[in-house]
Each structure stands twice: as C-alpha cells, then as structure tokens.
Amino acid sequence: MWHLAQVKRCDPGGKAQLQLLAQQRAEYAWTVVTEEITDLYLEDNHHPEGTLLLVELNATRQVQKVQDATSWILEIIEQYLVAGITPTDLQEEVQRAEQWRQSLTLKSQELQRRTLEMEARREQIQELEENLKAEKEQLEQLAAQYRANLNGEEDTLGSAKSD
C-alpha cells in the first residue's frame, strides 16, 4: 500500500526517519494519517530532510519501494488545480453523486414495488380467469341438464298426446 511520507531526520549511519502523511485507500482515494509512527526508517537514504516521498509498505510496515513524490504531486496539480477544480467543487460533485445514488435507489424501490403490485394483479387475474372458466363449465352443465329435461318432458308430453 502506498503512503505519502516526509523525511524527518537523517542520522549519520545513513538511515532516515520517515513520517507518514497520507495513505492510499483506492486508486484515487487517500486519507490523512493521524497517528504518529516513529519507528519507520529508510535504509540507504540519499534524500535530504523535508523531502516528500511515495513509499510502499508491506503488512509489517517495512519499506518495499520508494519514489520521489515530486512528479506525482505535480501531476495532481496539473490534473486538478490547473483546471480550477477546488476542494469545494469536488465536495459538490460528491454531493451530486450521492443525491443521484439516492434518487436511483428510490426509483429502484418504486420499480420493485410496482413489479410486486403487477405480479399480485396478474395472480388475481389468473384466479378470476379460473373462476370464470369453472362458472362457464357449471353453466354449460346446467344448460345441458336443462336441455335434457326439456327433451325428456317433450317426449313425455308427446307420448301422452298419442295415447
């Protein structure tokens, strides 16, 4: 993980004590280091006191890689400050993104609610269709019985007239 560090002190043995200033959390996300770490040293130091460095630390806080932070800082200045992007602009953009995210969340919830309502209505329509089909079958059976009864009465009346 990369850190922005400053050379605090150089001892005669060639070691330099580093003070961590910031820590990379993601590609474009850094946080300020608030704890003071005093046991971080750079072997074979040829950087003067006050120099800003990018250092990569391993899990046990041993320095793995070192590079001068000057070009990195100048790149940040070119990308953001020359273009006139201020911390206020960035904060406003973060707020707009958060509002957009919240809006999308609300729209998604509304869409889910409507989907559930449509599913419930579809089930109601299917149930009504089944009920109508069952009623139609009952009516057809009643009609068939009625016709059978009428035919039976006509036969009875027809045989009674012939007598």
Main attributes of the structure:
six-stranded antiparallel beta sheet; 6 strands; alpha+beta; 2 helices; 163 residues; single chain
Layout of secondary structure:
Layout: E1 2-10, E2 16-26, E3 29-32, E4 41-42, E5 52-57, E6 63-68, H1 70-81, H2 87-162
Antiparallel strand pairs: 1-2, 1-5, 2-3, 2-4, 5-6
Structure description:
By secondary structure, the protein is of the alpha+beta class. Helices cover 54% and strands 23% of the residues. The protein contains 2 helices and 6 strands. The protein has helices spanning 70-81, 87-162; strands spanning 2-10, 16-26, 29-32, 41-42, 52-57, 63-68. Strands 1, 2, 3, 4, 5 and 6 form a 6-stranded antiparallel beta sheet that branches. The chain is rod-shaped. The termini are far apart.
